[in-house]
Amino acid sequence: MRRLYARMETLDNAVKNYRRPIGTQSFPARHCQEIMEISKAPMGPVSGEYWIDPNLGSSRDAFKVDCRFDHDSGIAKTCVPATAASKAFRLSSLKKPESSSAWWMSSLIQEVGNGTERVSPTLISPVRP
Locate the Fibrillar collagen NC1 domain: which residues (predicted)? Predict the structure, then answer.
């Protein structure tokens, strides 16, 4: 009977962590703001590296980001690190289409990639101004 209760407790913790992603590789969040909102720490989470999975599918496609938390304003910034290829890429080589105002990000990701090739950039929530 104890084993049954222990197993139920383990499953309960897994479900809680699934609903409350904490930014680890096993339990990635959608973005840094989500980590800040669900943090149980008295002073909030500490700025640093966390794992995110914007589509919240399998945690296998999660990637590391740098989260910057401003506890006074309640804003969290999600910073995706650049790859060597994206650092060497010149934005001036991209051609802006007449109809789109958000041309550069999608073009840059298609041309170079930044380690998030399996994730749609529209799934990452923008940082609030």
Answer: 2-129
